[in-house]
Amino acid sequence: MVFHLRPVTSGLMATALLLMTALHALDAHAQSAILEGERFHPEQASHGMVASSHTLATDIARDVMADGGNAVDGAVVAGFVLAVVQPRSGNIGGGGFMLISDENSDDVVAIDYRETAPAAATETMFQNEAGNAVSDWSRYTHRASGVPGTVAGLALALDAYGTLSLAEAMEPAIRLAEDGFKVPPRFAAGLDEARDRLSAWESTRQVFFKEDGSRYRAGDTFRQPDLAATLTRIAEHGPREFYAGKTAELLVAEMERNDGLITMDDMAGYEPQIREPIHGTYRGHDIYAMSPPSSGGVHIVQMLNMLENDDIAALGHNSASTLHLMAESMKRAYADRSKFLGDTDFVDVPLSGLTAKAYATHLRDQIDPQHATPSDDIGPDDPWPYESGETTHYSIADDNGLMVSNTYTINFSYGSGIVVDGAGFLLNNEMDDFSAKPGEPNAYGLIGGEANKIEPGKRMLSSMTPTIVKRDGKNLLATGTPGGSRIITTTLQVVMNVIDHGMNIQSAVSAPRIHHQWLPDEIAIEAGISPDTIDRLEAKGHRIEPTRAMGAAQSVMVDAGLFLGGTDPRRSTSKAAGW
Ligand code: DON
Hints:
This protein is an alpha+beta fold. The protein contains 21 helices and 19 strands. The chain has helices spanning 11-36, 55-66, 71-85, 135-140, 150-161, 166-179, 185-193, 195-198, 202-208, 225-237, 240-244, 246-257, 264-268, 296-307, 312-315, 320-340, 351-354, 357-365, 487-499, 505-510, 531-539, and strands at residues 43-45, 48-52, 95-102, 107-113, 181-182, 221-222, 273-275, 278-282, 285-289, 392-398, 402-409, 467-471, 474-479, 514-515, 523-525, 544-546, 555-559, 562-566, 575-578. Helix 3 packs antiparallel against helix 5 and helix 6 runs antiparallel to helix 10 (225-237). The longest helix has 26 residues, at 11-36. Bound molecules: 6-diazenyl-5-OXO-L-norleucine (DON). 6-diazenyl-5-OXO-L-norleucine binds at residues 390-391, 409, 411, 430, 433, 462-464, 482-484, 487.
């Protein structure tokens, strides 16, 4: 992959560039005049855009890029900053996926830094003697953690595609951990909601409560000296420090004291992978999204393929007819997920079959436009034969032709709730994303099968769906979201709102959303869908379940030379900013 950085100009070239900038500004002016009339206003800029769930991550990543860094530099800086300022999901103790598109070379790559099961993990490790799955074991113990991938993944991205050194990219995060930052109301509320879980372990109490045991409140300064020391060691010695140095030793000692499974060998053996993303098309656009061990890319492409058979624009945004088709498509995709999806390093997943247009048409033909098919009558289908062969998301685009879409997580808010003593970071509880037992739902009600059983070294199935949409070879949209099982359907709706309904990126992100995941057989519906529409859906046989806000789809778009940011109003700390 070749990245073209902003050129150093002089003489004739500078004059040409000035002229081009003036034309570009005219273009941008005409564009913003149109956008002025919109109900939800996207952030706009001329050189690039960041949208993340935290003001500090957005501002610092934007400044790094405005100073000459590229979008991958911004993404790595944001990843480390979020690990400090948003520890409920930002992390170094978890894992995730990063999609990078370079429109100059036409490459789109996926960096897989998902956690892996330790070598001592077994298929039945979360079942009791009676053979029943015990969810507390896969969620709130040291055995709940997979081997973390974030440090290796971010370092790989930076090394391969960035321009900063690791120490430079980590400097803002180290400063924030050392000096502290002012607690926003959402941060204090998050700690308060999780206070029982966060007081269960002494190492966690030391980080998330004040010395006298009292709670942090909005406006307080929050410092993390142990985390600052850990980040400093990594910045000085490189990512191997996390996997084979003092940080690994602290993590393994934490495991040994508490019946955990991760060993020094597990840590030293962790490798992030560069994978080919899933590619599909939708009404003339190229869709790139995360490949296994995430189910996100397969199923967003599968659902779009089903929906492409109908004129969604004519049926209208969030009309009963459109929502019916969406819910029916979602059910069928999630039914297939339960059987076929798992880590392709361990199991064969019929990727071509699941993402084939012909298979989607076959599934669409089973949808009755007037009546909901009960989920009991739907099961994993028979994909076309293989022919030839509290998570957080941020999106970034720059004027070097780079676009980055990154989702990473420790699974639950604050992961397992266990801080590595002396190292200051939370451990993930990602092992719960495996099937503890075939047919047993995980925390998000997702059923998994044989393909997602626990095996040593295997990556647990994910729903994270960092997505990049291109049109005519150009980067158009980067989006993705947290939300467990709802990640894939939330991302789907942002893509449809842009492509089918022609919304600007802020409207596309803000619009009310729905979700169906096959089981339970219900449409989860956010506030903002009209009661008349709900009546019509019920008349078709759908069960409707009103729900709290779903997801936080931080998104960026490039349109007519303008960089647009759509930040999700469902998070009070969200921010999009450009330069
Ligand atoms: O990888 C997955 O699919 C889950 N561990 C994501 C968890 C999540 O999104 C929680 N945040 N809301």
